[in-house]
Amino acid sequence: MSVKSLLSLVAVILVMAFMAGCAKPPQADLDAAKAALEAAKAVGADRYVADVFNAAQDSLNAANTEIEAQNSKFALGRNYKKAQALLAAATRLANEAKDKTAARKEEVKAEALKLIEDVKVALKDAGKLIKRAPRGKEGRAAIDAMQAELKAVETSVAEAPALIESGDYITAHDRLQAGLAKVNSIIDELKQAIAKKAGR
Amino acid sequence: MIIHDATRLIVNISRRLRKVLTIPCRSLKTWFQALNPFALKIPASLKSLQVRFFRCLRPDRLSPGGKKSAAGKRHPGTVFLKIPALKICLIAVPAVSGLLAILASLGPSPPLKTISQSRIALHGARQSMGEILAPDLFYSAERRWENLLSEWNRQNQKWFPARDYQEVFKLAVETRDIAGRCREKSMLAGDSLKIRIPAETAALEKEIRQFKTRIRELPIPEPSRKRYVRAELMILESRSAWQRQDHVRSAGLLKSARTLLGQTGQEVSGRLRAYFSNLTAWREMADETVAWSRINRDAAILVDKLAHQCRIYRDGILAAEFPVELGANWMGHKRMRGDRATPEGRYRVMGKKSDCDTPYHKALQIDYPNREDLLRFEDDKQRGRLPRNADIGGSIEIHGGGGRKADWTNGCIALQNGDMDVLFEWARPGTPVTIIGSLNPGGQPLRF
């Protein structure tokens, strides 16, 4: 190979290096990461799996920083590989948060649906016990108060299916659990009153 | 800009040297176009340069000085460069690039360390739930971060000597400081919640218990009763959230529960205050009843609704005291039929009913509505406080059948049958029956 051929080859390589040096920011990756994060937030990942979601958000911020840091450099010296890796991590974490949220939601939903049945059964039991409860010493006022309380629980619990329907499983779950606890406390109170009466 | 400058430099050097090279003109043209995003017109002189790229790559076909190749053809309309220009280019391109790189490195550089610190601080603020516990600071920091990125990007678009990262630095410092403060505040708030929530839950539960005890005997309206039960349920919900480590939601629920409880308490207090505004008049009525009994040496009946007591005075002296049960909505004066309220005022026994005349063992019929009741009723109707078709009601009695431990009548006063026998014995038509709200000043045990 002559000197000229060699020089030409070097020229070609230089031009290629020059062109390769003018690397473009990974806009597609950035858009994909942003979209993944928005999708995760839309399903409530920031509430259900906050730690994973926050990590994804931080990765995106780090990627943005890296992109701008590269943009600050001389064109030939730019390298967006690290930014690409950070964006890939952000996308992966956002998708993971989304998947975990979906799984957690299903779990809470199943628990909430079970609680609806439990509350119904407990309310029935309480209704039966109220009929057997002594009116005398404990007083009818107490029974009336209990009935009012059970009615209020029923009203509160009746909102749960709508909450589940709207996807707010945590609130539905908490409300049902509270309702069940209240009904159970009334049942205990009634059982004690009935036992006291039977013991006399 | 860099590419543009480099291209121009190469072209100028090439023009001056005017040496022929063997690089294919079409490829070169394409390269120039590709490397020339600003569509710089290639100087006409450049066209005279002769290039044969393939020959350059293939020594066997090399024809220095731009002579005809073995095939004996020149490419019509092509651009040629002289051979020494290639050498110059090979030196000039890296040299210019290097020069530009040096210039770039000498130019202003972004405050990477501070930016990184601000990003970490923002992440810390987010992790410590700053978004919820210190939202003002958090959103302020986040806004600054967005502005920082946008300003940084704006500066990066500029020719590097013209860049100025002062604003970026300022925003980075602000973001770092505000996010840091947000994190501290959130952590403090979080720690405080961990201590405050259990204490507040216990306090509210105690308050609920006391409230229930206090209102047990009061005919509080259904919405108020529902509200305090809702408050109780919220406290239980708050417990669930607490167990799930969702302290913020737990605190929010407790706050709502306290508000509900406060509203109910205010309603009940308001009702009680309004009720006790008549206390002076009730006391006067009670004193007059006792005085009447003393002066007339006769029996007089005094019913204290709040105390749920019926007192019998004989010759001005308290002879007996019986527990009574009232209308379900006993608090306040009876205004119309069906309101299940027990009237307040001065009445007299109109008639006595023995067990064959009443289903409630025995009964003393009183003269409700009296003249005062009728006047009040008409006034209320005229002022629109009562429906136009409202009826004042009647048939208010003191009767037996009591002892149910609840206020169950439609406005009558119920005694236990044994007590009713005593009262029935002492009373006669014309015996004064004074029904008052309370003798207890301010209803001390019922204060909220």
Structural class of chain B: alpha+beta
Rg over C-alpha atoms of chain B, rounded to the nearest angstrom: 49 Å
Mean pLDDT of chain B: 79
Tell me, briefly, the overall form of chain B: rod-shaped
Secondary structural class of chain A: mainly alpha
Unreliable sequence segments of chain A:
none
The largest inter-chain interface, given as chain pair and residues per side, is: A-B, 58 and 70 residues
CATH class descriptor of the largest domain in chain B:
Mainly Beta
Relative helix content of chain B = 40-55%
Quote the beta fraction of chain B: 5-15%
CATH superfamily of the largest domain in chain B: L,D-transpeptidase catalytic domain-like
The helix-strand sequence of chain A is HHHHHHHH
Could you explain the architecture of this structure?
The complex is a heterodimer of chains A (200) and B (448). In chain A, 84% of the residues lie in helices and 0% in strands. With 200 residues, chain A is mostly helical. Chain A folds into two domains: 80 residues; 96 residues, no CATH class. The mean pLDDT of chain A is 85. With 448 residues, chain B is α+β, with helices and mostly antiparallel strands. Chain B folds into three domains: 105 residues, no CATH class; 78 residues, no CATH class; 168 residues, Beta Barrel (L,D-transpeptidase catalytic domain-like). Chain B is built from 14 helices and eight strands. Chain B is rod-shaped and about 140 Å long. The C terminus of chain B is likely disordered.
